[in-house]
Amino acid sequence: MQVKKPRNIKDDDLYTKPADFDRPLSESTAMSYYIQRIPLAELCRDAADITWELTVAADATCIAYERILELDQRFVDLLNGLPHFLRFDKGSDMDGQIRDGAHLQTEKQKYFSYLTIQARRCKLHLPFLLRVAQDERYQFSRETSLRSARNLLQLRHIIPSQNSSATSVRIIGVLHHFFCGISNFQPYSASVNTR
């Protein structure tokens, strides 16, 4: 995009701060989530391009595997670089706690960010899931793809279920990510059943 990216500012900053003022990304504002979505969208675009190449290629091995590893590292860096208020901690269970609207919104944003990153990593490595039998260098892809799928499926049990927000979290986009996690196990289980 040939446009300026949004600044991490609060509404009041538009009237009280200079035009070039920007808060650090570690500071939570109403724009924080959307600013983090930009590099995620750019990375997903690159991953979609490679996924398309893998789909139309006669053999996935004709794609330089280093490109897959580089993209995967970018997903890891993105996940690790999220500000603390958007980091997803699988050990935290928020059920039963009183939460205001802003906190509920932030929780949903954590879920969606985590779901998207894990689903894209899962799909990126999927073409190499079974190829480890022919080439051991794809072991990393097999482990990463299965781990991402498990993370997606575990999240289904972590999303709060004792409050009204659970219903709004269960939208088609979330269900799609769960489907990606489940479908990742299908080729492996099918190969096991044929033996």
**Strand percentage:** under 5%
Q: What is the general shape?
A: elongated
Alpha plus pi helix count: 7
Low-confidence stretches: 91-98, 162-169, 186-195
Secondary-structure-based class equals mainly alpha
| Overall tally of domains | 1
- The mean pLDDT is 76
Q: Can you summarize the main beta sheet?
A: none
Number of strands: 0
How far do the termini sit from each other?
A: 50 Å
Encode the helix/strand succession as letters.
HHHHHHH
Description of the structure:
With 195 residues, the chain is mainly α. It has one domain (13-193). The longest helix has 25 residues, at 32-56. The protein is 60% helix and 0% strand.
List keywords for this structure.
0% strand, 195 residues, elongated, 60% helix, mainly alpha, 7 helices, disordered C terminus
Compact overview of the structure:
This protein has 195 residues and is mainly alpha-helical.
Topology:
Blueprint: H1 13-16, H2 32-56, H3 65-80, H4 101-125, H5 139-158, H6 165-169, H7 172-193
Helix pairs in contact: 2-3, 2-4, 3-4, 4-5, 4-7, 5-7
